[in-house]
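Sequence only, no structure available. Ideas?
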Amino acid sequence: MGRLRSPDAPISLQLLTSGRAVKGERYKFVVRISNSSDAPVPLTPCPYYRVQYLPQVEGGYLNCAAAPDAIPAGGHVDFAMEMGVLQGDPELGGTYDLLWQLAARGPRAGR
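Reply:
I predicted one. Tokens follow.
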């Protein structure tokens, strides 16, 4: 479980994970976005995210349709996530970090 607080916004991110990732399967986890301010933080436009579990990188927009319009003051919103875990090289072992980030905007059209 990791936590990150943004210096530019009253939000913090927390990854709620359990179990181990298994090669060739989808790894499921939850991203909790908390608002420490006394005002709601809108989820419009819907934020784009990027998640990385080496060497796999995925991105997309949060499921804002299933979330409230804003993160309530002093509250949080949880987003269920999943990511593919590549089979990879059988000789490649070890431990990898799960990295997750919000992006200012999604990829440009045509890319």
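Confidence is low (pLDDT under 50) at residues 1-6.
Hope that gets you unstuck.
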